[in-house]
Specification:
TPR_rpt, 435 residues, single chain, TPR repeat, CellSynth/LPSAsmb/PSIAsmb
Length: 435
């Protein structure tokens, strides 16, 4: 008997050592060594410990190992409870065997402790299949059975958030938070921050971002915090999370244009330009960053770099109307008609003939004394600017120059209807009418 007790003690001690070693190795990132320890532990583990091993495999996403252990359990003839069925169903879901997963989960009876978890998994499957109403019904049914269960309340919030229904998700997340919900990989405060930001409640969103980020630093949340601060034009507040995000992950390229704009609004032009250049070192095809850099060169008085840099933006994205309009305005201010004509020609070759740009082209051809080309450009621009009093006056003065007095007077009259305080134009009309 003494020998038996000694053997049992040694076995228990050995099991505990293997378990602790395995978990410590995995937590330290030594996955291979940890899995070897788990394999050794499997051989001598009790049924309860087999559960623990299975949960570890599931958490690590090692579905092949988990499935092998489940099949081994089935063959042994041991009771196969609802918890094991849900694990098997999760594996089926991972393998995209959704119908098999539904069949398994449907076997779990209402009195089984795993029944509620099964309803949540069924909701996930139906949502993946695009059957949103069925998924919602499963969640609402689970909620009716356990209205104070934080996991189910939070699941309702996640469901509405994934659908983009942020107003509906907020009360569920708030209740889940009050009930003490703690997600293993989630931060409910950050979800609330995202939802409030999406519904335009920016001040409330910022409050939740601050609270949530104190609990857990998250890259997307840092971006969301900065972006939300920008919506309130709180540029100093926006800079901090964007800068922190850049420190944690400099390849998070989406942040750079927003950080550039925040610094630009505070007139930190040199710093903004350096950030734009840094962003381009990670993403050389970012037309927005080239555009921002060009604007900053303009603000810093480096006129010789504006055109070249903005051309980069437009070459990368010929549909970037903000960059195109900025460059057209720049060329007009510089009185560089040939550059306007060249840019317009380039855009037309790419199929980007837009009436939005035609007024600039009309100006360029007019200065070049190419009257017919200017008239055609004015006609095209009229599609967009036909209710703009300044355009109507400019077009009318051009028509007057080329001898089309009648149409010019019509345009002047339209312009005055839109801008009756334009006394110089009114005087011109009176002179033309008199003579």
């Amino acid at each position: 008997m003494k020998d038996d007790k000694k053997w049992l003690g040694a076995s228990w001690g050995e099991t505990m050592n293997k378990k602790q070693e395995a978990i410590q190795l995995i937590q330290a990132g030594q996955i291979k060594e940890g899995l070897e320890k788990l394999t050794q532990w499997e051989k001598i583990a009790t049924d309860e410990e087999q559960y623990e091993i299975l949960e570890i495999y599931m958490e690590l996403g090692l579905t092949d190992r988990a499935e092998r252990l489940i099949q081994k359990w089935k063959k042994s003839g041991k009771p196969f409870d609802g918890e094991l069925i849900t694990m098997e169903a999760e594996i089926k879901m991972e393998h995209e065997e959704e119908e098999e997963a539904i069949s398994l989960l449907s076997q779990i009876r209402k009195e089984d402790p795993a029944f509620l978890k099964a309803q949540l998994l069924l909701a996930d499957i139906y949502q993946l299949q695009g059957l949103d109403e069925v998924a919602e019904q499963k969640l609402q049914y689970a909620l009716s059975l356990a209205p104070e269960e934080p996991v189910i309340v939070a699941a309702m919030g996640y469901y509405y958030m994934e659908r983009g229904d942020y107003k509906k998700c907020i009360p569920y997340f708030k209740k889940a938070e009050q009930l003490g919900f703690v997600g293993q990989h989630d931060n409910i405060k950050l979800h609330l921050a995202q939802a409030y930001s999406a519904t335009g409640e920016f001040e409330t969103a910022l409050d939740y971002y601050e609270k949530g980020l104190k609990e857990r630093e998250d890259l997307d949340a840092l971006f969301g915090y900065g972006y939300t601060a920008l919506q309130l034009h709180d540029y100093e507040r926006a800079i901090e999370p964007f800068t922190r995000l850049k420190e944690l992950d400099p390849e998070y390229v989406t942040l750079y244009p927003y950080l550039v704009r925040a610094h630009k609004q505070l007139h930190n032009y040199e710093q903004a330009l350096n950030i734009a250049k840094e962003g381009l070192s990670y993403d050389e095809f970012n037309d927005t960053l080239f555009m921002e850099a060009a604007m900053l060169y303009d603000l810093l008085g480096e006129k010789d770099k504006v055109s070249e840099t903005m051309w980069e933006a437009i070459s990368l994205n010929p549909t970037n109307s903000e960059a195109i309009l900025y460059l057209l305005r720049f060329f007009r201010e510089e009185e560089d008609e040939e550059a306007i004509i060249e840019l317009m020609s380039h855009l037309k070759e790419l199929g980007e003939s837009d009436p939005l740009y035609a007024w600039f082209e009309a100006y360029a051809w007019r200065e070049q004394e190419e009257d017919e080309k200017a008239r055609q450009a004015y006609e095209q621009a009229n599609i967009v600017y036909g209710q703009d009093p300044e355009f109507l006056e400019d077009y009318g003065r051009f028509l007057l120059e080329i001898g089309n007095r009648k149409q010019a007077l019509q345009l002047f009259e339209q312009s005055l209807q839109l801008q009756p305080e334009n006394e110089p134009l009114r005087n011109l009309m009176e002179e033309l009418t008199f003579w």
